Amino acid sequence: MSSATTTRTRPLAGRVARLALAATLSATAAVAAPAAAQAASPYERGPNPTVALLEASRGPFATSSQSVSSWSVTGFGGGVIYYPTTTSEGTFGAVAISPGYTASWSSISWLGPRLASHGFVVIGIETNSRFDQPDSRGRQLLAALDYLTERSSVRGRIDASRQAVAGHSMGGGGSLEAASSRPSLQAAVPLAPWNLDKSWSELRVPTLIIGGESDSVASVSSHSIPFYNSIPASAEKAYLELNGASHFFPQTTNTPTARQMVAWLKRFVDDDTRYEQFLCPGPTGSAIEEYRNTCPSS
């Protein structure tokens, strides 16, 4: 009560001065707050995300590509690099992607420009042999990342501390192998993954597994779901099952796959929390059979 009384009896000039100071501080805080929010991650690239942006055939960045001859590299069979052409956004994270058993990169090459247009430097690899097993594909994915970040002509566009892997079928199994071997990776995205090893309890890399409900080659019940269940929740993980999809869903443009891949890579490679809204609670609709998620810890 005495404090309130003292406040009411202060000279008018003093009260005005204090009110003016308070208003100035409030205005300063109001301006600083959005700036602080925008600076939440130094790796944010591109505009605020929307469903329409993620489901469009291309993201906000123009891209270019270049072929990599198998004769110019070691540890993998060459491939194609896709990258944003802008030089005003800083450096980008790197992603290496492997095709599946007996397949070439062309079978899933739509993923290259799709991901690059959202702000990643992507290398889609050719494997040393069409018959390489997941462990070999995992080593080749890591060799491709090392080439991309250390020796490629686009290495200056890349932040080598932010790397991820992905792949289809045995390439997806290979992405699990790569993530197990190199825990410094920021993300892994196995697509319809196949691997004889069903337990990945050692994995610490945030992993999004996408499976097809009607996959008769790497059935979700014996591959994707056991893989997902074995990864510790502390690693951050998600499982997306596509309604009625076969083993070959990554070989044609697939919007749910692209949408979740971009959101996952943005969240964990770019540390861009603007994309959490697409991961938790996650996608719904007729194309989605099931979605499980640990929900990212900001």
Structural features, described:
Helices cover 32% and strands 20% of the residues. By secondary structure, it is of the alpha/beta class. It has two domains: 36 residues; 242 residues, Alpha/Beta hydrolase fold, catalytic domain (Rossmann fold), CATH 3.40.50.1820. Strands 1-2-4-3-5-6-7-8-9 form a nine-stranded mixed sheet, with helices on both faces. The longest helix is centred in the first third of the chain and has 27 residues. The chain is globular and about 40 Å long. The N terminus is likely disordered.
What features would you highlight for this structure?
alpha/beta, 2 domains, nine-stranded mixed sheet, 8 helices, 32% helix, globular, hydrolase, AB_hydrolase_fold, carboxylic ester hydrolase activity
Text of the CATH class of the largest domain: Alpha Beta
Distance between the termini: 43 Å
Number of helices: 8
Tally of structural domains: 2
Organism: Micromonospora endolithica
Protein name: Alpha/beta hydrolase
Keywords: Hydrolase, Signal
InterPro entries: AB_hydrolase_fold, FrsA_esterase, PET_hydrolase/cutinase-like
